[in-house]
Amino acid sequence: MSDAASTPDSLVTPLAKAAAVPVPAADELAGRFPLVPNAHPATEAERAQALTDLHFGKVFSDHMTHARWTRGEGWGSQETVAFGDISLSPAAAVLHYGQEVFEGIKAYRHADGSIWTFRPRYNAARLNVSARRLALPELPEEDFIASLVDLVRADQEWVPSGDGESLYLRPYMFASEAFLGVHAGGVVDYYVIASPSGAYFTHGLQPISIWVAQDFHRAGRGGTGFAKTGGNYASSLLPQQQAAEQGCDQVCFLDDVTEKNLEELGGMNIMVVDADGTVRTPHLTGTILEGNTRSAIIRLLQDEGRKVVEDTISLEGLLADIESGKVTEVFACGTAAVVVPLGHLKGEGFDVTISGQEVTHQIHDRLTGIQYGRYEDPYDWMYRLV
Ligand code: COI
């Protein structure tokens, strides 16, 4: 079964199509970022300690991959080197105007010790969608995947094997040219760093609580909402702090035009399960990040025979539907967070509890089953790195 086959057209986006293009085997891509080994890697004991009690994004492996682009010359000098501080001019454009894009993708250890990643072409294609919006150079998709192959092969001992653990890979690209004029940088650096990680939310699959921001929006029409760029996350931090002050785990944003409709959370997409089994998720209006996990879940739910629709989901309607029992579950999804139920939806003047979790748990099991090799992968989503 091919990835894009049999899904209704409206939900087969260009990124979903890109993800379905076969990738050459890792052995063919390996070596594009030649390894210069870290002279002082962590000792076995240090690594074992670092892999104990994993949280999200706190420890880093021994190496990182790097490439530099210069205007007129293109990409050059690709390498895998020791993880460490980078040297940047205080005038580097990224520090002033935020010309940066990034990705998030994981390496999963299967029971037989092999290491896999999930739909890497999706992230490769999305990095380039983001790069175009931020006037950054595109990285050839197979170089993107090769950078993951070389890094994970260098640091394979850093891929954890505990329940729900993975090596979180963070590819990113930024303008490093030193200048203060507002124009696209002529020197750009691309890196991938790797962080052995556990659950994004410390309480794992426990329901999270959401604060709906009403004074702030994540993105506006014609802006950068669909791109994975630091600015979108920077602007979510103050509302995220307000969410925390309200005792909530995450912030949820409404659209900037009507200020009524759900868009996404601070760092993940949102899905609503109706009592009749239909699953709804906000339309990709250009202000929402098109998540790889969102896309895969849509496909999995459809193949279970569920109706999945992109919809305009108003906060008012959602609150009424939770109250009446028309909506039984709401969940968040993303690479880092995977799939997590929403237990509370809170905002100015409301605080509702959502108790259902059945579909959320099913889809979590189905998705992670494929990612960790517990279930067959009929979509060819998994790509063997090692
Ligand atoms: C991811 O899910 O990979 C992201 O980049 C989102 C961020 C909240 C960690």
TrEMBL record:
GO molecular function: branched-chain-amino-acid transaminase activity
Keywords: Amino-acid biosynthesis, Aminotransferase, Branched-chain amino acid biosynthesis, Pyridoxal phosphate, Transferase
InterPro entries: Aminotrans_IV, Aminotransferase-like, B_amino_transII, BCAT-like_C, BCAT-like_N, BCAT_family
PANTHER family per UniProt: BRANCHED-CHAIN-AMINO-ACID AMINOTRANSFERASE, SUBGROUP IIII AMINOTRANSFERASE
Biological processes annotated in GO: isoleucine biosynthetic process; L-leucine biosynthetic process; L-valine biosynthetic process
The keyword Amino-acid biosynthesis belongs to this UniProt entry's keyword annotation: yes
Enzyme nomenclature, EC number: 2.6.1.42
Keyword Transferase in annotation: yes
Gene3D superfamilies for this protein: 3.30.470.10, D-amino Acid Aminotransferase, subunit A, domain 2
Names of the cofactor(s): pyridoxal 5'-phosphate
Similarity field: Belongs to the class-IV pyridoxal-phosphate-dependent aminotransferase family.
Known catalytic reactions: L-leucine + 2-oxoglutarate = 4-methyl-2-oxopentanoate + L-glutamate; L-valine + 2-oxoglutarate = 3-methyl-2-oxobutanoate + L-glutamate; L-isoleucine + 2-oxoglutarate = (S)-3-methyl-2-oxopentanoate + L-glutamate
Protein origin, superkingdom: Bacteria
Pathway(s) served: Amino-acid biosynthesis; L-leucine biosynthesis; L-leucine from 3-methyl-2-oxobutanoate: step 4/4; Amino-acid biosynthesis; L-valine biosynthesis; L-valine from pyruvate: step 4/4; Amino-acid biosynthesis; L-isoleucine biosynthesis; L-isoleucine from 2-oxobutanoate: step 4/4
Modified residues (N6-(pyridoxal phosphate)lysine): 228
SUPFAM superfamilies: D-aminoacid aminotransferase-like PLP-dependent enzymes
Protein's name in the database: branched-chain-amino-acid transaminase
